[in-house]
Design goal:
single chain; alpha/beta; 2 domains; two-stranded parallel sheet; two-stranded antiparallel ribbon; 5 helices
Length: 150
């Protein structure tokens, strides 16, 4: 195993012809080195891309998981011939049930305001409804750029 730290080392991985695994951390395949690796890996049917966790609509990861046969990377069309795989159970994000369990130690009547800040709108609204059923009264889903006094 080799940990690649520098961008130039990472770029060299795109030319490796022997079997290898590239692990790249990037939220939903949207930024950083992962896009360079995908641009080189996706056209080759001998490759596989494993998405770990959730990919929101509108992201490159979501496009790939939805079966796109071609994607745009750096403004250029890239054919998707690699196998696209998903592992949903391995994510750093808590799911709905885990969030409810985490908040179970709180007394809802003592929580002045609960902020829901990560997720797609439909899921956030569903979680808000569930939290209201649990007794939380003031639940905010902030919009981009919205400010709150705490």
């Amino acid at each position: 195993m080799e940990f690649v730290r520098e961008p130039e080392e990472s770029k060299r991985l795109n030319n490796v012809k022997r079997p290898c695994i590239v692990i790249s951390a990037s939220g939903m395949m949207e930024a950083g080195r992962v896009r360079h690796h995908l641009r080189h890996a996706l056209p080759d049917p001998n490759n596989a891309v494993l998405a770990v966790g959730f990919c929101a609509p509108g992201t490159l990861g979501h496009e790939l998981l939805s079966g796109a046969r071609e994607v745009n990377i750096f403004g250029e069309p890239v054919p998707v011939n690699a196998e696209i795989l998903r592992m949903e159970f391995y994510s750093a994000h808590a799911d709905r049930g885990e969030l409810v369990k985490y908040l179970a130690c709180q007394r809802p009547e003592q929580v002045r305001r609960l902020f829901l800040v990560h997720g797609v709108e439909r899921a956030l609204l569903g979680l808000k409804d569930l939290m209201m059923e649990q007794g939380y009264k003031d639940i905010a889903i902030p919009r981009n750029g919205e400010h709150f006094v705490i």
